[in-house]
């Protein structure tokens, strides 16, 4: 089969690799119908996170079950399923607590020795603990299928940030980052009942999506100018809940600066760059809480799925470029050059 591999920074290729097979009784093999490129994939593409030459890449996909191991009880050949970006056994203490990203037997798609989501098929360890079944008729609805793909990562990650930030009905929320995760953070904040949502971003195409998703205000400035603008919009106080969806030192400094005393930051931007940007004494003095991290999207899918199925939540607009599997290298270039927000892959 064909799959996407990374050989070096800026060297993404689609190559012939061995077909996935059931290796363990709890495995399933899923034929991919939809995959995509994540903003965090760009850190490997740019050489900011290490990868071995020839390593698989991609961690967001949905598809159809083609084969199951002898111990798999929840799925059968032909089932339409979505996979969260981390596999997990579904039986350990962490999984029971809804923190599947800490499962001792879990792992990330595209890690050494595993399949990546940007390919024709994927071997899924611990299928019963990992996969979530979708309605079969969704496969015939192109828009819905694309919206459901967002459950594999960005929608759940945006929701995790909103929960970490303490978004509640009537709250004021600020979102740092106009990428797909930040936009899904806007969508999540609206779903949780935020009264005012301030989106920080300077790309009109993206902030237009933010407004469609529920943003009431847009701040195009950066750094101290952004802090001043948000404070002006909030009567000098800042936002009660802040979503940080970038992961740089500047973005975290901005998040701290725009948080209201007693508020909270939900951070889900993958950390990269020269530092954290955290001034713990400032956060201590102002009673600012910090919560977040790697989103356990497997725990959130059952909650979010009904709203995606009935159209109450539609994250599909974050996918603004579609490429076939052979076009994945160009998709990486487009996202790296910021000519695409999030690339949908149709193997």
Task: Please give the structural blueprint.
Elements: E1 2-8, E2 11-16, E3 28-36, H1 41-45, E4 55-56, E5 61-68, E6 80-83, E7 86-87, H2 93-96, E8 107-108, E9 121-124, H3 127-130, E10 132-133, H4 142-149, H5 154-164, E11 172-176, H6 180-191, E12 196-200, H7 204-213, E13 217-219, H8 223-233, E14 239-244, H9 249-258, E15 259-267, H10 280-285, E16 289-292, H11 297-309, E17 321-324, H12 328-336, E18 343-346
Parallel strand pairs: 11-12, 11-14, 12-13, 14-15, 15-16, 17-18
Antiparallel strand pairs: 1-2, 1-4, 3-5, 3-9, 3-18, 5-6, 6-10, 7-8
Written description of the protein model:
There is one protein chain. By secondary structure, the chain is of the alpha/beta class. It is 30% helix and 25% strand. The chain contains twelve helices and 18 strands. It has helices at residues 41-45, 93-96, 127-130, 142-149, 154-164, 180-191, 204-213, 223-233, 249-258, 280-285, 297-309, 328-336, and strands at 2-8, 11-16, 28-36, 55-56, 61-68, 80-83, 86-87, 107-108, 121-124, 132-133, 172-176, 196-200, 217-219, 239-244, 259-267, 289-292, 321-324, 343-346.
- Range of helix content: 25-40%
Q: Report the uncertain regions.
A: none
Terminus-to-terminus distance: 11 Å
The tally of helices reads 12
Instruction: Give the overall shape.
Output: globular
Could you provide a short overview of the structure?
This protein has helices spanning 41-45, 93-96, 127-130, 142-149, 154-164, 180-191, 204-213, 223-233, 249-258, 280-285, 297-309, 328-336; strands spanning 2-8, 11-16, 28-36, 55-56, 61-68, 80-83, 86-87, 107-108, 121-124, 132-133, 172-176, 196-200, 217-219, 239-244, 259-267, 289-292, 321-324, 343-346. The protein is of the alpha/beta class.
């Amino acid at each position: 089969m064909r799959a996407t591999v990374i050989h070096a920074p800026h060297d993404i290729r689609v190559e012939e690799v061995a077909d996935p097979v059931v290796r363990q009784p709890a495995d399933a093999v899923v034929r991919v119908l939809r995959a995509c490129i994540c903003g965090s994939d760009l850190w490997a593409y740019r050489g900011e996170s290490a990868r071995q030459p020839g390593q698989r890449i991609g961690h967001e996909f949905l598809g159809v079950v083609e084969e199951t191991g002898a111990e798999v009880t929840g799925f059968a050949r032909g089932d339409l399923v979505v996979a969260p970006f981390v596999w997990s056994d579904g039986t350990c203490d962490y999984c029971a607590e809804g923190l599947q990203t800490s499962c001792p037997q879990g792992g990330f798609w595209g890690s050494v020795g595993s399949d990546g989501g940007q390919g024709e098929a994927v071997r899924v360890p611990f299928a019963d603990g990992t996969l979530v079944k979708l309605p079969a008729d969704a496969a015939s609805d192109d828009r819905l299928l694309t919206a459901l793909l967002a459950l594999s990562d960005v929608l759940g990650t945006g929701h995790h940030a909103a929960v970490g930030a303490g978004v509640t009905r009537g709250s004021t929320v600020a979102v740092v980052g106009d990428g797909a995760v930040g936009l899904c953070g806007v969508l999540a904040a609206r779903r949780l009942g935020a009264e005012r949502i301030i989106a920080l971003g300077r790309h009109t195409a993206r902030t237009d999506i933010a407004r469609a998703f529920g943003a009431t205000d847009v701040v195009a400035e950066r750094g101290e100018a952004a802090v001043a603008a948000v404070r002006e919009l909030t009567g000098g106080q800042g936002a009660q809940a802040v979503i940080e969806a970038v992961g740089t030192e500047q973005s975290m400094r901005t998040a701290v600066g725009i948080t209201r005393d007693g508020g909270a930051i939900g951070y889900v931007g993958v950390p990269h760059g020269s530092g954290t940007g955290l001034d713990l004494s400032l956060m201590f003095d102002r009673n600012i809480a910090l919560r977040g991290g790697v989103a356990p999207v497997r725990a959130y899918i059952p909650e979010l799925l009904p709203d995606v199925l009935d159209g109450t939540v539609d994250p599909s607009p974050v996918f603004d470029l579609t490429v076939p599997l052979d076009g994945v290298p160009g998709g990486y270039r487009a996202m790296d050059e910021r000519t695409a927000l999030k690339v949908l892959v149709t193997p």
